[in-house]
Amino acid sequence: MRILSKPQLKELVLYSPQHVARLEKAGQFPKRVQLGPNRVGWVEDEVLDWLQHRLERRDDLTDTPE
User: Fold this and answer.
1) What CA–CA distances, in Å, run from 47 to 23, 42, 63, 64?
2) Residue 16 near residue 48 (C-beta atoms within 8 A)
3) What is the top-level taxon of the source organism (predicted)?
4) With contact defined as beta carbons under 8 Å apart, do 21 and 65 qualify?
């Protein structure tokens, strides 16, 4: 298991930390893991699964003319 730091997460997801926090709060993004008093991380497999789900749905999320 690998834990992603905030900079590593930003490389994968390209969202601001504030947007990630909003998505987490809404239950639409994997929850962070508290690693210490001032350190958080995200489980890489959970983030990759979230991204894969987004990729699978991308045709449903875009409006394409027929």
Assistant:
1) 12, 7, 25, 27
2) no
3) Bacteria
4) no
The model carries a pTM of: 0.83
Task: State residue 15 phi and psi, 5-degree precision.
Answer: -105, 155
Provide the pairing of β-strand 3-4 with 33-36.
unpaired
Report helix, strand or coil for 24: helix
CA distances from residue 37 to 12, 56, 60 in whole angstroms, order as listed:
24, 36, 40
State pLDDT tens for residues 6-63. 999 999 999 999 999 999 999 999 999 999 999 999 999 999 999 999 999 887 766 5
